[in-house]
């Protein structure tokens, strides 16, 4: 059985590589056709995109079938933040919560800090086009381990970019930036991120972390409630926030999402505000 599992993971990884190679070939041909002109029919310029699109559709169908035929019980974990926050793209409203099963995001949730009504800058159509990260109360907020775990991946070298919460900036994010980041893979999508092994084949991901804020490194053992990083705005992110998810493997390229529930707190729906209790003491150990 382990061999079968390893074979499955290898096939998924190879499929992901082919998927990204197809997009690279497509964009390369488009650029060549625009600036140099190609001697063959325009269909062949667009044809490399057919393969990654087919892979995308196939992966989506497979994920939906697995979700339907092999439903997983939600795993109970702690809350990764403290204080008053709001939820976006919540699995409490729909799955896949982010519109895709890719990168293990089926049951992912986005969290933005809302310490008071109106403290978080809202979306603007025209101006300002972008904002500084420090304008958002989530930036620099501490993030906590949701269970006793082992750190299997941690990186925080990517920069925190400006917000993408105006119409022009969002269009840039969706049309240009997200496509290029998707080709770049997990680290470009998640930005600075940490992966925790919670045991029993369950892994927790904290994404879009602040550069230089990691308090852990691969191999570390962490306790539930221990601070592991700070909230940032790296990767495929529109504003400083925490992207949190559980999955069944350490590599988001090949893992499937795992549903979760929070201990002592109902998982909020889109736009719902909640207050996570501060149940930690200095040193990162949870109080009884």
Give an overview of the whole structure.
- The protein has 288 residues and is α+β, with helices and mostly antiparallel strands.
- It has two domains: 2-69; 75-276, Glucose Permease (Domain IIA) (Distorted Sandwich).
- The protein has five helices and 13 strands.
- Strands 2, 3, 5, 6, 7, 8, 10, 11 and 13 form a nine-stranded antiparallel sheet that branches. A two-stranded parallel ribbon has the order 1-12. Strands 4-9 form a two-stranded antiparallel ribbon.
- β6 (193-199) and β7 form a beta hairpin.
- Mean pLDDT is 88; it is low at 280-288.
For the secondary structure, the number of strands is 13
Please indicate the percent range of residues in DSSP E strands (runs of 2 or more): 15-25%
Instruction: Give me the CATH fold name of the largest domain.
Output: Glucose Permease (Domain IIA)
Count of the separate structural domains: 2
* CATH homologous superfamily heading of the largest domain: Glucose Permease (Domain IIA)
Instruction: Write the CATH architecture name of the largest domain.
Output: Distorted Sandwich
Rough outline? globular
Q: Which class of the largest domain in CATH terms?
A: Mainly Beta
**Broad structural category:** alpha+beta
Give unreliable regions as ranges. 280-288
Q: Radius of gyration in whole Å, from Cα?
A: 20 Å
Percent range for helical residues?
A: 25-40%
Instruction: Name the helix and strand elements from N-terminus to C-terminus, one letter apiece.
Output: HHHEEEEEHHEEEEEEEE
Biggest sheet character = 9 strands, antiparallel
Keywords: Membrane, Transmembrane, Transmembrane helix
Pfam families: Peptidase_M23
GO molecular function, one term: metalloendopeptidase activity
InterPro entries: Cell_wall_metabolism_enzyme, Dup_hybrid_motif, M23ase_b-sheet_dom
């Amino acid at each position: 059985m382990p061999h079968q599992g390893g074979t499955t993971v290898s096939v998924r990884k190879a499929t992901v590589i082919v998927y990204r190679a197809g997009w690279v070939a497509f964009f390369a041909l488009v650029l060549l056709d625009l600036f140099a002109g190609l001697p063959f029919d325009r269909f062949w310029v667009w044809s490399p995109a057919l393969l990654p699109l087919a892979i995308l559709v196939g992966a989506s169908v497979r994920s939906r079938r697995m979700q339907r035929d092999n439903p997983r019980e939600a795993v109970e974990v702690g809350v990764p933040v403290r204080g008053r926050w709001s939820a976006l793209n919540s699995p409490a409203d729909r799955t896949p919560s982010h519109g895709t099963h890719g990168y293990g995001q089926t049951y992912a949730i986005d969290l933005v800090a809302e310490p008071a009504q109106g403290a978080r800058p809202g979306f603007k159509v025209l101006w300002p086009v972008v904002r500084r990260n420090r304008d958002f109360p989530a930036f620099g907020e501490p993030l906590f381990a949701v269970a006793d775990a082992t750190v299997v991946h941690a990186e925080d070298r990517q920069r925190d970019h400006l917000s993408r919460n105006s119409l022009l900036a969002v269009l840039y994010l969706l049309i240009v930036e997200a496509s290029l980041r998707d080709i770049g893979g997990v680290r470009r999508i998640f930005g600075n991120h940490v992966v925790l092994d919670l045991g029993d084949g369950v892994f927790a991901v904290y994404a879009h972390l602040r550069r230089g804020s990691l308090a852990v490194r691969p191999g570390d053992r962490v306790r539930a409630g221990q601070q592991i990083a700070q909230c940032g705005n790296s990767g495929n992110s529109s504003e400083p926030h925490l992207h949190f998810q559980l999955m069944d493997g350490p590599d988001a390229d090949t893992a499937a999402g795992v549903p979760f529930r929070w201990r002592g707190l109902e998982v909020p729906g889109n736009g719902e505000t909640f207050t996570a209790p501060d149940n930690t003491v200095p040193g990162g150990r949870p109080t009884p």
